[in-house]
Amino acid sequence: MSKYKVKNSIWFVLAEGIKIYFTNIDKFLTYMLFPVFGQLIGIILSFGLSLGFANQIVARVDNPLVALLFVLLLALPGLLIFVKAFWDYMVAYVALNSMTEGAITTGKVYDFQSHNEVATRRTWPYVLLLLAVGLLSSIGSSIFFIIPAFVLWIYFILVFQIFTFEPDLKIYEYFKRSFVLVKGHWFRTFLLMAILSFFSIFIITQGISVVFDYLNLTNKICMLFDPISSTLPIGLTNEILTLLKQPIITTEMISESIYYSILSAIIMGLTLPIRSICWSLWYLNLTELEQKKQNSNKKSKKQKNDDEVE
Questions:
Q1: What are phi and psi for residue 13, nearest 5 degrees?
Q2: What does the alpha-carbon distance between residue 122 and residue 233 come to, in Å, rounded to a whole number?
Q3: Which end of the chain is more exposed for a tag (fewer CB within 10 A), N or C?
Q4: How far apart are alpha carbons 36 and 262 in whole angstroms?
Q5: Please, what sign has the CA dihedral across residues 114, 285, 191, 198?
Q6: What is the pLDDT of residues 13-61, one digit of tens each?
Q7: SS3 label, residue 7
Q8: Which tens digits make up the pLDDT trace of 221-249?
């Protein structure tokens, strides 16, 4: 990554990240298609087949355990697709960092398999890292830990980049190393995260929603979720809302919520490359700053020793 000239600015990181992303946008979108849409297809296929045929199976099979087995078998193909796509999505978290390095040093993004090997040839360490991140996220989701967990998450936000570029460290050292790099740059790291999240997820999602509304596609898409929405037990909830003189929940509202949730998830997945690129550049920026600080301290210490000798 030596060809990348570090500038201590999140705006430079954003500009350089956008440049790399759009220069190779066709490759990044192609790379993310299955990890993103494979998960969606897997979920639809799994629930569609299992729930769609559940009533017929129960009506024809007397043994409940056998009926359950048939339902699970129907869900299995979709589940396998989902698991494969989900794993590929997790692999992308580190493979995209490697692709960023390739884009910086060679100006090109190619050979996805070699980039995937950053994770696949170190499967168990990577799985342990994912479990550690998942555990910390679960603890942080508690109402008692939300604020401290958010602060810590900013400090730990570079763990995937460190896993990619500093492979000899142990699991706990990825978090420690990220903490050390971000220390003193917490606010700028937070600001970079906020900008990336706002523009790569919120703005694009809202932009697509506006286009769909203009083309009268939103209502048609939402209607696809009406069969699911109509099966949800919202009667009691609406009775309580009526007593409280609050607007009730309708099937259309639920369908619209499902639509926006799926759209946001798709956009979040497809825009993962631009966020990974920027975090890789920010990692490089902070690493260079750390190196300069260490060199400066060494020079100061050497100068001090020389003065003492004289």
A1: -60, -45
A2: 45
A3: C
A4: 11
A5: negative
A6: 999 998 899 888 889 999 999 999 999 999 888 887 777 777 777 777 7
A7: coil
A8: 888 888 777 777 777 787 887 888 888 88
Supply 25's token pair. Answer: 């946008």
Q: How far is CA 44 from the centre of its chain?
A: 20
Question: Tokens 């589940």 — which residue?
Answer: 79
**And the tokens for 242?**
């009526």
Task: Give residue 196's region: left, alpha or beta (phi > 0; psi -120 to 50).
Answer: alpha
**Owner of token pair 């606010």:** 187
The torsion of the CA quartet 135, 140, 143, 144, rounded to 10 degrees, works out to 100
Identify the pLDDT of residue 2. Answer: 46
State phi, psi for 83 to the nearest 5 degrees: -60, -45
The DSSP code for 110 is: -
Contact 261, 140 (CB under 8 A): no
- Alpha-carbon gap, residue 144 to 58, rounded angstroms: 44
Other CB atoms closer than 10 Å to residue 218's CB: what's the count?
19
Query: Is residue 96 within 8 Å of residue 273, measured between CB atoms?
Result: yes
Cα–Cα separations (whole angstroms), residue 64 to 49, 71, 79, 274: 18, 11, 22, 49
* 71-126: pLDDT as tens digits: 788 889 999 999 999 999 999 999 999 999 888 887 777 788 889 998 999 999 99
